[in-house]
């Protein structure tokens, strides 16, 4: 079920999602899957910190409602648990020290991306379309781009990519993947095999503008960028600390600019995973 009010983001729970473990690259996580009646093209939705919270599930359900078969790997946190300060505080330190994510490393290949590529390939084999889409957010934002090295991925969305954590100039500029992955992604982008979409708020220090400059300079026009104004006095009423573009900042009644960004994500995925933009 999905709910929304004029002052809160859309949310959903775990009802109707099928839970199953998936193992690849020496890593195992529970994954949650749901498809529309009759099935649909595949999308891997990677949760943001602290995990599969109701707002993340609201985005997931929105994708299902728009005709996509969605798989969510539960990489961290407790599925369905609501966000709180204490929950965030207990989750972040674990992510900081995990070798799976390498949260501070620059020019790094992260083990989790090999896992996600295998998950995307598995979903692609079971769903129709030109390939699958991958959506990463916050801590996982850049993971979607590294996953798009795999031939199964034809569309990747990086919403407020925050890894490596932007402490210092080098980390702010870092693309969030290894040089080899960046090279492979650039080749796939240049050849038209994959399209990319990035989103951030203008004042978001966790997803620095410098990172987007690095990505855009290398990936070119096939890396579409949406930047929402969160400067003082902005027309959308966003706080300067606004971060979660397509989840917590979305308002449906009345619709705000984050709502429009979320709808662009849906149309972007539809254009690419169905093959409509590739013919």
Could you characterize the architecture of this molecule?
The protein has 279 residues and is α/β, with parallel strands linked by helices. The chain has one domain: 3-Layer(aba) Sandwich (Rossmann fold), CATH 3.40.50.1820. It is built from eight helices and ten strands. The protein has helices at residues 54-65, 85-97, 111-126, 141-147, 169-173, 179-190, 209-219, 257-273; strands spanning 2-5, 8-12, 18-24, 27-34, 42-46, 69-73, 132-137, 153-159, 195-201, 223-228. The strands form two sheets. It has an eight-stranded mixed sheet, with helices on both faces. A hairpin with a 2-residue loop joins strand 3 and strand 4. Helix 3 crosses helix 4 (141-147). The termini are far apart.
Keywords:
279 residues, alpha/beta, Rossmann fold, 8-stranded mixed beta sheet, two-stranded antiparallel ribbon, 8 helices, disordered N terminus
């Amino acid at each position: 079920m999905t709910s929304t009010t004029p002052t809160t983001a859309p949310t959903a729970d775990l009802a109707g999602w099928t839970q199953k473990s998936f193992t690849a690259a020496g890593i195992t996580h529970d994954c949650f899957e749901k498809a529309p009646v009759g099935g649909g093209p595949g999308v891997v939705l990677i949760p943001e910190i602290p995990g599969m919270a109701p707002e993340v599930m609201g985005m997931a359900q929105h994708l299902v409602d728009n005709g996509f078969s969605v798989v969510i790997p539960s990489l961290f946190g407790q599925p369905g648990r609501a966000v709180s300060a204490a929950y965030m505080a207990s989750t972040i330190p674990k992510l900081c020290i995990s070798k799976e994510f390498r949260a501070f490393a620059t020019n790094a290949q992260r083990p989790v991306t090999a896992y996600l590529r295998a998950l995307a390939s598995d979903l692609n084999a079971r769903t129709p379309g030109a390939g699958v889409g991958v959506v990463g957010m916050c801590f996982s934002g850049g993971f979607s781009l590294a996953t798009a090295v795999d031939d199964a991925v034809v569309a990747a969305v990086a919403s407020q990519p925050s890894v490596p954590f932007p402490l210092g100039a080098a980390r702010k500029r870092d693309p969030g993947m290894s040089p080899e992955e960046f090279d492979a992604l650039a080749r796939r982008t240049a050849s038209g095999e994959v399209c990319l979409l990035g989103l951030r708020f203008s004042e978001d220090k966790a997803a620095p503008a410098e990172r987007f400059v690095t990505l855009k300079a290398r990936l070119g026009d096939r890396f579409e960028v949406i930047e929402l104004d969160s400067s003082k006095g902005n027309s959308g009423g966003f706080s300067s600390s606004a971060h979660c573009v397509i989840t917590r900042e979305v308002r449906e009644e009345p619709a705000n600019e984050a709502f429009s960004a979320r709808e662009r994500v849906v149309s972007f995925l539809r254009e690419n995973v169905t093959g409509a933009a590739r013919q």
